[in-house]
Amino acid sequence: MSNTTLEDHYARLVRVRPRMLSFARLHLRDHTAAEDAVQEALIAAIEKNDSFSGRSGYETWVFGILKYKLLDQMRQQKRQGKWEPFDEDAGEEILDQMFKRSGSWAPSAAPQSWGEPDKALENETFWQVFGACMLALPDNVARVFSLRELMGLTTEQICEEVGIKENNAWVILHRARLKLRSCLEKGWVENDA
């Protein structure tokens, strides 16, 4: 580990807490449960500070702890019957408008160039728009996308967590990617140009 002091870690935790809370709210859709999960993750990070090896970034390590706390909370919501059922047809009409009958892109919906995508990931405005776009997704779509792309679960694990079939998970992921791309192009690519 580097010469980073415990105070440095506390300061980093204070800075990352708002993003952790947003991430937790996205998954749990319950402010109190999200606060609890973040608090548990922060306490675990403080208690396990000596086990941080530096193989990943400190914030990545803390988000890894949060990931497991969120999965625990989601399982608890499921056991308590607080899990919202999936609405299979949510947003179907919007997706239908993006394509022609042949399956090719409608002219108004064709993807725009993002320039250098790697640079977008370093842009704070991109992440603000991404967060807003994630919150605009239907709950079930946002949850499945985040479990896959942000938390790194396999499709099989996602299906087990949310109680859906694999082909349904792939359809939801496809819808999420299309909606996010469209939202990001409107809120970031067009404004960044």
Description of the molecule:
- The protein is mostly helical and 193 residues long.
- It has 9 helices and no strands.
- α6 (124-136) packs across α9 (166-192) and α7 (139-150) crosses α9.
- Residues 85-91 have low confidence and may be disordered.
- Residues 15-79 form the RNA polymerase sigma-70 region domain.
- Keywords: DNA-binding, Sigma factor, Transcription, Transcription regulation.
- It comes from Halomonas cupida.
- It holds the Pfam family Sigma70_r2.
Number of helices: 9
Helix content: 55-70%
Radius of gyration: 19 Å
Secondary-structure element order, as H and E?
A: HHHHHHHHH
The low-confidence runs, each spanning 5 or more residues with pLDDT under 50, are 85-91
Distance between the termini: 41 Å
Compute the average pLDDT: 75
Overall, the morphology is globular
Main sheet, how many strands, which sense, barrel? none
- Structural class category: mainly alpha
> How many DSSP-defined strands?
0
Q: Strand-residue fraction?
A: under 5%
Task: Summarize the structure in short.
InterPro entries: RNA_pol_sigma-24-rel, RNA_pol_sigma-70-like, RNA_pol_sigma-70_dom, RNA_pol_sigma70_r2, RNA_pol_sigma70_r4_t2, RNA_pol_sigma_r2, RNA_pol_sigma_r3/r4-like, WH-like_DNA-bd_sf. The protein is mostly helical. It has nine helices and no strands.
